[in-house]
Structure formats: C-alpha cells, structure tokens
C-alpha cells in the first residue's frame, strides 16, 4: 500500500514480514502434508494446523500492505491460538499437530514470541503516528 | 551408512557456515553497515550446499529409508532452497539494517532446517 516512512513493512516490520512469511509457508505446508498423508489420524488437530497456517498468511499480507486493523486482529487471534493450543497440548501426543503445540516448542518458541513482537511493533507505530499528527 | 554420514557432514559444515554468517550479519547490523560481495558470496555458497543436500536427501529417500515421513522430509529439503533467495530479494528492497536483519532471519531459518531434517531422519 502506501510507502510512507511509518509503514508496517519498513524497519523492523521488514524482518517481521519475512518471519511471518516463513511461518505462513511452514505451517500451511505442514498442515497440507498432514491432511494429505493421514487426515483420519487427527482431523481436528490437523484442521487447526491448517487454520494456524491461514492466520500466518493473513498476518503476512496485512503487515506487508500496511493494513493495521487486520494485522492487529490477526495477530491477536495468533496469540490466542498459541496460548490456548500451547496450554491444551501435551508434548507427547499433540506434538506433531501444529506449530502452536507446546507453545511452539518445536520452533524455538518463535510462535510464542512473534505475536508479542508484532503487537509491540503495531503499538509503537500507532504511537508514532499519533505524535506526528499532534 | 556412508551416505548418512555424508549428509550429516554436509549439514554440520553448512550449519557452521550459517552460524558464522549469522554472527557476521549481527556485527553488520550493530555497526550499521551493509553486507558486501564477500557475504553475498558466502550466502551463495550455502545455497549451492543446499542443492547438494537436496541431491543427497533424494538419494536417501530413494534408498532404504524405513519409516521416514517422506513428504515432510522432501518438503523441508525443497523448502530450504527457497529461504535465502527470498530473503535476499526481500532484503534488497530496503538497504538498511532492517534488510540485513532479513538476511539474518534467513540464515537462522536455514540452520534450523538442518536440525529439523536431522530429527526427521533419526526418528524414522
């Protein structure tokens, strides 16, 4: 979208968009493999896995195009997802289910840290915008 | 056995190069300087190594691979090839430390993929 200096795709946002993109591909590909190879094993968990992939895709797109409201809502869904799934999942049985299992333990806890960084980034940009107006 | 050892050796070497490149990128970010040809050369070298990894991996999959999750394994092998080119293209769009940060995220992701591939192979 607009390439004003305070866009979500610049500065730290550039790194965020890339990392969100990595997780969008990783989570979606993982879910597709799960659903394609043994969908009947854990249909609910695998559908949830696909959902996490879609959340990352939307978040990547929203951050890359400076759609802040969409980005905030999506990242809040992501944070809720990783907290709920992280709490409900057991390291032994659901470990293979999604990137959010066990708070993203299998991915160096990046899935847990990423939404917090994302929200902080959007909050900081919002504050800078406010300062620029006043 | 010899084939497995070759794969592991390649991954250890490439993983080490990735970590060296990561430290290098951190230094560049701290000093607020942009990567030069030498660093891009190292990244290109890693990419060539990843093509080698794909070849070795396909040989593994074609041979006796036990209970390996082939789709995931090949997915990681092919996916690892995409990380650095995409990181490069996305980073040159902003020639600041943020662009360098994208490269850093890229090499760390590739290093992580070596660990993932090892896990998949050893847990088969």
Largest interface: A-B, 20 and 23 residues
What form of chain A results from the Cα inertia axes?
A: elongated
Helix content range of chain A: over 70%
Estimated radius of gyration of chain A? 16 Å
The major sheet of chain A is characterized as: none
Tally of strands of chain B: 0
Q: What is the CATH C level class of chain B, in words?
A: Mainly Alpha
Oligomer: heterodimer
Instruction: Give the termini distance of chain B in whole angstroms.
Output: 15 Å
Q: Which structural class is indicated by helix and strand composition of chain A?
A: mainly alpha
Number of alpha- plus pi-helical segments of chain B:
4
Low-confidence stretches of chain A: none
Report low-confidence residues of chain B grouped into runs of 5 or more: none
Q: Bin the helical content of chain B.
A: over 70%
Strand content of chain B: under 5%
Number of domains of chain A: 1
Structure notes:
The complex is a heterodimer of chains A (134) and B (124). Chain A has 134 residues and is mainly α. Helix content of chain A is 70%, strand content 0%. Chain A is elongated and about 55 Å long. Chain B is mainly α. Chain B has one domain: Four Helix Bundle (Hemerythrin (Met), subunit A). At the A-B interface, helix 1 of A face helix 3 and helix 4 of B.
What is the secondary structure topology, with strand pairs?
The complex is a heterodimer of chains A (134) and B (124).
Chain A: H1 12-38, H2 43-64, H3 68-88, H4 110-133
Chain B: H1 2-31, H2 37-62, H3 70-92, H4 97-122
Helix pairs in contact in B: 1-2, 1-4, 2-3, 3-4
């Amino acid at each position: 979208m607009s390439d004003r200096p305070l866009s979500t795709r610049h500065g730290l946002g550039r790194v965020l968009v890339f990392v969100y993109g990595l997780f969008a591909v990783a989570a979606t590909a993982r879910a597709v493999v799960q659903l394609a190879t043994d969908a009947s094993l854990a249909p609910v968990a695998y559908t949830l896995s696909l959902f996490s992939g879609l959340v990352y895709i939307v978040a990547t797109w929203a951050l890359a195009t400076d759609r802040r409201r969409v980005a905030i809502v999506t990242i809040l869904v992501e944070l809720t997802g990783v907290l709920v799934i992280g709490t409900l999942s057991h390291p032994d049985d659901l470990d293979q289910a999604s990137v959010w299992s066990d708070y993203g333990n299998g991915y160096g806890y990046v899935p847990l840290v990423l939404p917090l960084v994302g929200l902080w980034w959007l909050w900081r940009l919002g504050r800078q915008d406010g300062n620029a107006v006043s | 056995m010899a084939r497995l050892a070759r794969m592991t050796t390649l991954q250890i070497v490439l993983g080490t190069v990735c970590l060296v490149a990561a430290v290098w990128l951190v230094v560049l970010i701290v000093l607020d300087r942009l990567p030069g040809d030498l660093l891009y050369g190292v990244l290109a070298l890693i990419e060539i190594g990843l093509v080698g990894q794909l070849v070795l991996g396909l040989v593994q999959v074609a041979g006796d691979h036990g209970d390996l999750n082939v789709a995931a394994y090949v997915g990681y092998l092919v996916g690892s090839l995409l990380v650095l080119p995409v990181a490069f293209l996305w980073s040159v769009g902003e020639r600041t430390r943020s662009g360098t940060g994208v490269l850093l995220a890229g090499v760390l992701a590739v290093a992580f993929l070596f660990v993932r591939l090892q896990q998949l192979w050893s847990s088969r």
